[in-house]
């Protein structure tokens, strides 16, 4: 099983960052790779079990299911149902923690998944760098830091 972990510090209060990312349908509002998103079957975007279907700016199509959402832990966990990446059993968690020194946010994004062994290095680098760190870089640009 492959694992990816990325973390960053964003120079903004945790409440502001959480308000932006807790919307499971809000990826196009903050992540630079996402063109459009919708929640299937008209479900609320914060309902555990809802499925988001979104298009990447490069034309790729992904479906993900919300497995957990916690306003207490400031985290969301989701699974990929359909993706062009060639991964199986993909589960990821995005979690925020307040940094009280300077009212900043510590952000962590991790995932585990199965893939062909010959693609593990490529996929972990792409997910960790382009997807996770790319999202953190965009949040830093939007909020500062």
Key attributes of the depicted protein:
145 residues; alpha+beta; Alpha-D-Glucose-1,6-Bisphosphate, Chain A, domain 4; globular
Walkthrough of the structure:
With 145 residues, the chain is an alpha+beta fold. The chain has one domain: Alpha-D-Glucose-1,6-Bisphosphate, Chain A, domain 4. The protein contains 3 helices and 7 strands, in the order E-H-H-E-E-E-E-E-E-H. It has helices at 14-21, 27-30, 120-143; strands at residues 2-10, 34-39, 51-56, 61-70, 75-82, 88-99, 104-114. It has a 7-stranded antiparallel beta sheet with strand order 1-7-6-5-4-3-2. It starts with a strand and ends with a helix. The mean pLDDT is 96.
Radius of gyration: 15 Å
Order of helices and strands: EHHEEEEEEH
Q: Tell me the domain tally.
A: 1
Shape: globular
Count of individual helical segments: 3
Mean pLDDT: 96
Q: DSSP strand (E) fraction?
A: 35-45%
Low-confidence stretches: none
Name given to the CATH homologous superfamily: START domain
The major beta sheet can be summarized as: 7 strands, antiparallel
DSSP E strands, number: 7
Kindly provide the name of the CATH class. Alpha Beta
Strand order, biggest sheet? Answer: 1-7-6-5-4-3-2
